[in-house]
Design goal:
The complex is a heterodimer of chains A (640) and B (317). Chain A is an all-alpha fold. Chain A has 2 domains: 295 residues, Orthogonal Bundle (MetI-like fold), CATH 1.10.3720.10; 290 residues, MetI-like (MetI-like fold), CATH 1.10.3720. Chain A is built from 29 helices and no strands. Chain A is globular. The two termini of chain A are 31 Å apart. The relative contact order of chain A is 0.13. With 317 residues, chain B is α/β, with parallel strands linked by helices. Chain B folds into 2 domains: 145 residues, D-Maltodextrin-Binding Protein, domain 2 (3-Layer(aba) Sandwich); 131 residues, Glycine betaine-binding periplasmic protein, domain 2 (D-Maltodextrin-Binding Protein, domain 2, 3-Layer(aba) Sandwich), CATH 3.40.190. Chain B is built from 13 helices and 9 strands. In chain B, α11 packs across α12. The termini of chain B are far apart. Classes of the chains: A mainly alpha (640), B alpha/beta (317).
Chain lengths: 640, 317
């Protein structure tokens, strides 16, 4: 199970890690030359054109524009037809849906919901999944988080419902109609690199606060995965089956409902699985805009720096994720039980729901022991954590930040363009350079460069740790088996859960954001690196060993170079995730763009700047993604 | 296919709209009816939570209402008046701009009187610094001591530690307009501020921080306020040009128009609620340092201060 950006990963990984080994010496030399030229040119240019890092104006044209938009929306919310007949109806409809789902779940009562969840899991995914569902749901009550868990579940299910209703038809269209697919691709690309944080403010502007805005935000986060995987599934249906059906005179509609959809069923269920996982992690973040549920517990814990309380809520989220994941994964592998099994099982669950069973379960909380541990670490490791923070800030972060903030924006843009042209293709280069120029146009250059510096440092640390751990996992099967559930759990945690331990250890600083980002981004990097190294053909490894390679030589000369595609993909994924987390770090003193966003939705006079910062984050994401993805693609080209 | 969809949506639209489309509070649950539900916003600092805990406890136990609490930042809670998500904010710090928007212009909220607490916002240093550097409490001397307050975050400048970015603050503008060699760093929460303050006292580390009263911490440890140019009426009119200290705030309650009109005894109760800074600090202390839940803290305070809260209960309920 991979939770993040699964759709993109699948496609790219096949191209990248699939055909290693044709890495010509000429390609290597020209690659090195290019990079050397780039480095020399950059250093010369930077030294000759340094500026003083003047602070961003607090009154840029872009901020005033967004403030104007806000005022217009505020004044016209109950007057303008666009709102009266459009936006407000969407809000109303979503609210009705959430209320219905939530009333349905709560109406079953504790015993009823546990029984129904178990029965449904049993029918679609087998008795093991059923047992897991029952255990998991009981655990919510044991943790004392029953009501919050049900609210989070209701939000997630509502968002998934809408995502499937919209996403599956779009995915089918994208697979079948070429221009739809082509038109959707860039839109989905951008949606998948949007850091969750950046679009909460626009959501509240249009849909105000509360569950409707939360469900819509969750939908935007999750639906690209639905569309992408559905498209993959439909496009992957064997052409022979389609031809056979066509030869027998099937119409287009019959082809779709009788051949394509049934044959793509496992992939479609996988699409639902991934959508659920994405939706769950976002539903928790939407607590920032007044969505109910477990996210509220985590925000409260963050406000009180109470790591223990957050641990309980985080655990409930992980349990929910594991249950939903295992049930949907098992469902994609097998056919559901026939009605002969389904009817009695569901009937039994209905009986349980009707029985008057209370929710008197023994309570257990991890809060006290976790807080005791945190307190001990804070007390005894204070000097170590301070030293670590100050050293990384002084040696890596501050010099990089100074270099970036004193670079004039036009020079940075030109360098991005050149880097893009040398390492990727001209399209990626143009898009990346346009993004850089756009950030400047928003009037947030200094803050964007500060954020970029933090992102780069965190990415370097993430890659160092991730590659090391990934290689270890690839070499030791037992370690890989042991770490798998840990990685699963780590990837389902919503991003800002990681802020807590980081804040407790390092206080309010940019380093805190770096630590949280590293924890957040390492798991997928480990996975991709492990897969890349494992995909190196066994024959090549054997040949190297029989030629007398030591394990170290094998790693550095054979495995890592041949897993290059996987490593670059890992860097691409890692950098996008790091950016998402670093901006959330604005909540705990990391400053820069993340802070602008937080201030934007909590201080009225900063609204415009906050919205501009949201766009700047998106542009920064596009820039980083294009450069690293372009790099990845072009090396693929040069190998052939 | 297309032909069928258009009339369908049109019909659906007509059914849903009745007349004139959906307004922004469409579909929100009716609130504030007699013996109904009261939606209480909870802003993220413990003093506010103390007010809310006592109000929630008494509304439920004495008046028989159901109380829903919602964790919201200040300005987001105000938006809740418009959507129907929030009935009452029970410790409001000034916010003249929001009052103008939501009370005067949109007429979705009304003033429900002071809480009886006086709010003070200012810059503070731990007591040991005052003993070591007696003139540090004059804001004009801050630049002289900027080096003391350097951290990994503020670089060559001194650090001024602020709280949650949503708190009422002019600090960024103050630093700029008073030409101070300082950088504002946001710790993110009240708890983080308190932790830093306690550490500064215990380990004798320099710290300049944004803080406020009523606040239970002042009963435990001493912190000195740094004097900035005195506040005069209107000196903070333009948030970008502020160069004066914070005013004293008369903390008050704000409720939604709907709650004021239909809230009955619950509204009367919220309007009547007033207590002292000492009362609030006591409940805050229960919440923070005695490990009590909101309900336990409110119950303990209510059982010991019946005379205070009896007068809040509206006659005839």
């Amino acid at each position: 199970m991979t939770v993040t950006t699964a759709g993109r990963e699948t496609g790219a990984a096949e191209d990248g890690a699939g055909h290693p080994g044709r890495w010509g010496a000429a390609g290597l030399r020209s690659g090195r030359t290019r990079i050397a030229v780039l480095v020399v040119v950059s250093v010369v240019a930077l030294l000759s054109f340094r500026t003083t890092a003047a602070a961003d104006s607090s009154d840029a044209a872009a901020f005033r524009f967004f403030d104007g938009v806000r005022d217009w929306v505020d004044a016209n919310r109950d007057v303008n037809p666009l709102f009266l007949y459009g936006v407000n109806y969407i809000r109303l409809g979503v609210r009705l849906l959430v209320d219905a789902v939530s009333a349905g779940l709560t109406g079953l009562g504790f015993a009823g919901l546990v029984a129904v969840a178990g029965a449904l899991a049993l029918v679609v995914a087998g008795w093991r999944a059923g047992l897991l569902a029952v255990t998991g749901f009981v655990a919510f009550a044991v943790l004392g988080l029953w009501a919050e868990s049900v609210e989070t579940l209701a939000l997630t299910l509502s968002a998934v419902l809408i995502a499937v209703v919209l996403g599956v038809p779009l995915g089918v269209l994208a697979a079948r109609v070429r221009w739809v697919g082509a038109a959707l691709r860039p839109v989905l690309d951008v949606m998948q690199i949007l850091p969750t944080f950046a679009y909460l403010a626009p959501m509240t502007l249009l849909f105000l606060i509360g569950s409707p805005a939360a469900v819509i935000a969750t939908l935007i986060y999750a639906v690209p995965v639905t569309i992408r995987i559905t498209e993959l599934g439909i496009a992957g249906v064997a052409p022979t089956a389609v031809e056979a059906a066509t030869a027998q005179g099937a119409t287009r509609l019959q082809l779709l409902t009788g051949v394509r959809l049934p044959m793509a069923r496992p992939t479609l269920v996988l699409a639902v699985n991934q959508t659920v996982m994405m939706a769950l992690s976002m539903a928790v973040v939407t607590a920032l805009i007044d969505a109910p549920g477990l996210g509220q517990n985590i925000i409260r814990a963050l406000e009180r720096v109470n790591v223990g309380a957050a641990f309980d809520a985080g655990l409930a989220i992980v349990i929910m994720a594991v249950v939903l994941d295992r049930v949907t994964t098992a469902a994609s592998r097998r056919r559901p039980h026939s009605w002969r099994v389904a009817v009695p099982v569901l009937g039994a669950a209905a009986v349980v729901a009707a029985l008057p069973i209370g929710d008197a379960v023994p309570r257990f909380s991890f809060a006290a022991p976790v807080n005791a541990l945190t307190g001990w670490v804070e007390l005894h490791w204070y000097d170590v954590t301070e030293w670590l923070k100050n050293t990384v800030s002084a040696i890596l972060l501050n010099p990089l930040e100074t270099t970036l903030t004193t670079t004039p924006w036009w020079l940075f843009t030109v360098l991005v363009l050149v880097a893009g042209l040398l390492m990727a293709d001209w399209r990626s280069a143009l898009i990346a350079a346009a993004s850089a120029a756009g950030v400047n146009g928003l009037g947030l250059w200094q803050h964007a460069m500060q954020t970029l510096a933090t992102v780069l440092v965190a990415t370097v640390l993430t890659m160092l740790i991730g590659v090391w751990a990934g290689v270890l996992c690839a070499r030791h099967d037992r370690l890989a088996v042991l770490t798998r559930p840990l990685l699963d759990a780590a990837q389902t945690m919503p991003s800002f859960v990681y802020l807590l331990p980081a804040v407790a250890l390092f206080g309010a600083s940019r380093f805190t954001a770096i630590v949280a980002a590293v924890i957040f981004a390492v798991p997928p990097v480990v996975r991709l690196v492990e897969r890349g190294v494992r995909d190196v053909p066994a024959t090549v490894v054997e040949a190297a060993l029989s030629a007398g390679s030591t394990p170290r030589q094998l790693l550095w000369k054979v495995q890592l170079p041949m897993a290059r595609g996987g490593l670059l993909l890992a860097a691409n994924q890692g950098i996008v995730m790091v950016l998402a987390m670093v901006v959330v770090g604005g909540l705990v003193g990391a400053g820069a763009l993340g802070y602008d966003v937080v201030a934007g939705f909590s201080q009225r006079e900063d609204f415009g700047r906050g919205l501009a910062a949201g766009f700047a984050i998106v542009l920064l994401g596009v820039l980083l993604d294009r450069l690293t993805q372009g790099f990845h693609r072009s090396t693929k080209g040069s190998r052939q | 296919m297309k032909l069928r969809i258009i009339p369908m949506t049109a019909v659906l639209g007509l059914v849903l709209s009745g007349c004139g489309g959906a307004t922004s509070d469409a579909g929100s649950a009716p609130s504030g009816e007699s013996k109904g539900t009261v939606n209480l916003a909870i802003n993220p600092w413990v003093g506010y939570e103390a007010n809310a805990a006592v109000i929630e406890y008494l509304l439920e136990k004495e008046l028989g209402y159901t109380v829903e609490t919602k964790n919201l930042k200040e300005e987001i809670a105000w938006q809740g008046f418009e959507t129907g998500e929030v009935d009452a904010i029970v410790e409001n710090w000034g916010h003249p701009d929001l009052k103008k928007t939501y009370i005067e212009d949109k007429k979705v909220a009304v003033d429900a009187g002071p809480t009886g607490n006086t709010g003070v916002i200012g810059w503070y240093v731990p007591q040991w610094m005052v003993e070591q550097y007696p003139d540090i409490t004059d804001g004009a001397n801050l630049n002289k001591y900027a080096d003391l307050f350097k951290t990994s975050e503020s670089g060559a400048q001194g650090q001024l530690l602020d709280g949650d970015p949503s708190f009422v603050t002019n600090d960024a503008a103050l630093v700029e307009n008073l030409k101070l060699n300082y950088k504002v760093v946001y710790s993110g929460s009240e708890a983080a501020l308190i932790k830093a303050a306690q550490q500064a006292t215990a380990q004798k580390k320099p710290l300049l921080f944004y803080f406020y009263e009523p606040q239970w911490l002042f009963a435990k440890e001493k912190y000195a306020r740094v004097k900035l140019p005195a506040y005069t009426e209107g000196c903070d009119a333009d948030p970008k040009k502020v160069a004066c200290d914070y005013p004293d705030y008369v903390l008050d309650k704000v409720v939604s128009k709907k709650f004021a009109d239909t809230g009955g005894a619950a509204y009367e109760f919220v309007k009547n609620f007033t207590w002292t800074n000492d009362d609030q600090n006591l409940v805050s202390d229960y919440l923070t340092n005695q490990g009590m839940s909101a309900e336990q803290a409110a119950e303990k305070w209510a059982s010991e201060h019946e005379a205070t809260w009896k007068s809040w209960i509206p006659a005839g309920s």
